[in-house]
Specification:
2 helices, disordered N terminus, five-stranded antiparallel β-sheet
Length: about 450
């Protein structure tokens, strides 16, 4: 049975390995706690060549950095919890962070007010990474939304946990509004998932196919048309249907093979096998795709872009990497999050220049109003630095998510200093914190 038929029939990141391991219990569930402390980078890299580690920076409230404290960091800090070099991936959410190890285990730190850590339903937050409860030990991909989280197994099974008030976990209409432990999305039984992207109150995923591209599904809150299902507004401006409680195939993209997806606050985006970019969601998108036959509530192609490889969505901005390693951005430019040298809103994709004219971009991630990209093994950040305008005491503001030693805004890509002999292999931006997986050369 094809995916279209099936869905139609179902209603429609250390310097040394001295991070200590301790054991604890919570709600009768076995928990592994990685006690963490900040460490410096190794100067002599010969002994740790090719070893991976994780660095985090930005807002430290609720322990979201996983450094064993509540302190904010204006520069990258190495987390000792994963000092054995086994970290594969990091995912930064609203006020929490997920860590994926090479062995397929997932750890979490930060705020847990909606169960987004997947460790306990009575633990408000944790400053040390705790192992997520109840997941198989063969996880290969993780994703963190504002209040919810997900993990994908080697065989493509999707597990989700956290806030579910709008159906963003895809567990059905009868599921609770808060799910504190990972739950398998049973609706997707027999449908392997390749990747998932989580927004503020919605989720979007791509199925796994032999061709490495697949169908695109979305679920959760449908406000502003961010699910791509054509939800219409009433005369009073309210959506007639706001949520999808189980994964639903985006009919407008049926037959289109999708290879990459991204979810922002009120919009979503995806790229197909031909390098075409499709967007759907908030009003800011409407000005970009305002032509006959296009609406914000269904996917619209952005024809101004060259062949594209990767897409990322922030709160109200979007970034795309082309096959040639060029970076294009558009949308709201609050605090300079587009990296174009000013703060003017951009309605048509504009190429980010500066260092990217010399070196191509390989990865990009968007936070609320800041952006980070990997180019030639280095990280560049720009946008909102986190300053609130009233509190500027060093290392104690609410920001520093750019990792540049202060909390002011930058309107152009600026190099983050990790020292010598390291290269960055993965980057993730949260609301106002950032994480990276690095490797010693």
């Amino acid at each position: 049975m094809s995916i279209a038929t099936r869905f139609a029939s179902r209603i429609s990141r250390s310097a040394s390995a001295n991070g200590k391991l301790s054991i604890g219990f919570c709600q009768r569930r076995f928990m592994r706690v990685l006690t963490c402390e900040e460490q410096e980078l190794v100067n002599d890299s010969d002994s740790v060549k090719n070893q991976r580690f994780v660095a985090v920076w930005g807002n430290g409230d609720y322990g979201r950095l996983g450094l064993g404290s509540l302190e904010s960091k204006w520069r990258p800090a190495v987390c000792s919890a994963f000092g054995d070099g086994s970290l594969r991936e990091i995912a930064c959410g609203g006020a929490h962070t997920l860590f994926l190890t090479d062995s397929g285990n997932v750890y979490a730190s930060g705020l847990n007010d909606h169960g987004q850590l997947g460790v306990s339903d009575d633990k408000g937050y944790t400053i040390d990474p705790l192992e997520v409860s109840g997941l198989p030990n063969n996880i290969v991909k993780i994703s963190a939304g504002y209040y919810h989280s997900s993990a994908i197994t080697e065989s493509g099974e999707l597990y989700m946990w956290g806030k579910n008030s709008s159906g963003q976990l895809g567990l059905g209409k009868k599921a609770g509004k808060l799910i504190p432990f990972p739950s398998k999305v049973e609706f997707l039984n027999g449908v392997p998932i390749k990747m998932a992207a989580l927004g503020s109150d919605h989720s979007i995923a791509v199925t796994e196919c032999v061709s490495e591209t697949g169908d695109v599904l979305s679920w959760g809150g449908g406000e502003s048309g961010r699910l791509g299902h054509g939800h219409k507004s009433s005369l009073l401006g309210f959506l007639s249907s706001t949520s999808e409680y189980t994964p639903r195939l985006i009919k407008e993209l049926e037959g289109v093979k999708i290879k990459s997806v991204a979810a922002g606050m009120l919009h979503s985006a995806c790229i197909d096998e031909n390098g075409s970019v499709f967007v759907f969601g908030e009003k800011a998108v409407q000005k970009l795709v305002s032509r006959e036959g296009s609406t914000v509530s269904t996917p619209s192609q952005i024809k101004e872009l060259p062949f594209s490889q990767e897409v990322a969505c922030g709160a109200h901005h979007t970034c795309v990497i082309t096959s040639g390693g060029e970076l294009y951005t558009w949308g709201s430019n609050d605090n300079g999050c587009l990296g174009t040298g000013d703060t003017h809103t951009v309605h048509v994709p504009e190429r980010v220049q500066g260092p990217f004219l010399k070196h191509s971009v390989s990865k990009v991630s968007c936070g609320w109003k800041h952006t980070a990209a990997i180019s030639d093994g280095n990280v560049y950040t720009w946008g909102w630095g986190g300053a609130m305008g009233t509190f500027f005491e060093a290392e104690h503001s609410s920001g520093g998510q750019l990792g540049l030693g202060d909390d002011v805004d930058y309107v152009e890509p600026t190099l983050v200093d990790f020292g010598e002999n390291v290269k960055v292999v993965q980057i993730s931006c949260g609301f106002n914190h950032t994480g990276a997986v690095l490797e010693y050369n």
